[in-house]
From TrEMBL:
Domain of life assignment: Bacteria
Ranges annotated as spanning the membrane: 7-24, 36-57, 69-91, 97-117, 124-142, 154-175, 187-205, 217-237, 249-268, 274-291
Protein name: Transmembrane permease
Annotated localization: Cell membrane
Annotated GO CC locations: plasma membrane
InterPro entries, alphabetized: AA-Vitamin_Transporters, EamA_dom, EmrE-like
Membrane topology: Multi-pass membrane protein
Provenance organism: Hymenobacter lapidarius
Record carries keyword NADP: no
Pfam family, one: EamA
Stretches assigned to the EamA domain: 10-140, 156-292
Amino acid sequence: MSNQLRVHAALFFVAVIYAANYSLSKDVMPRYMGPFGIVTLRIVGAVLFFTTIKYFVAPQDKIIGRADTVRSILCGVCGIGVNQLLFFSGLNLTSPISASLLQTIAPIIVVIASAVLLSEKITLPRVLGIAVGAAGAASLILSRNAQAAIYPHATLGNIFILANATVFGLYLVLVQPLMRKYHAFTVLSRIFLVGAVIAVPFGWREALTANYASFPLYIWLEIGYMVVFLTILAYLLNNWALKYASPALLGVYIYLQPVLAVLIAVVLGKDHFTWGKAGQAALIFLGVWLVSQKPKKAVVSEVAVETVQN
């Protein structure tokens, strides 16, 4: 298999991993474990893995200096701790399809954050894209449909997911200098450790008091999936693929995630796709496409389309 095919295979596999999570997580919460308990298991598992691997592959590499230390803490707060708490809280309350569509707002947040923090230029198409994407997201958040009885708190859940996409978009801008300066495992071990400090106080009780003896085999497998595939393997594959893949190629696979999430959710009977959601999705995708039109001579943030991490 050529290296190019490996890149495509890695990115497609990551897209499938993220897409499947929207439906599989609904099996686990809230019946067997609350959202914060799941977050705790994910983050603690990732901390142990990345810290151990970092010890072997980059033992001398350390984040130094006040500026980089503060930046790494902010990345851990936005990209891991707050991000994961918001995501699973929102997914617990809303439908898989709504959550997956709202996640595509993240690239728009990246553009706004890049303009503020990195002084990147915002052109008229980007302004229009932000407006169109925001309109699609607002329509999705405020809409009520036949599933209102299933998800009575969907509006609050959608707001949590939008907030999750916002803080993750900010994280992508903040983490760029660290990823370029330090070994990937050095950065990942640090930000997951900070994320654990934020999230574990909220979720340790749910994680410890869950009735594990009552878990059927498929629930154990889905929890294992969220720790091993969703958290660890997805990060590893993305970091490898980013060495060879262009931002445009990564963007295609980001937009593929909600498409796969819809297919998986419908096949598993976790959600139903409606014409209303199709229109909202079209607005969001159009907004993201307009925002992705980079101004000439602009410095492009390579991590703007790195990943949509749950």
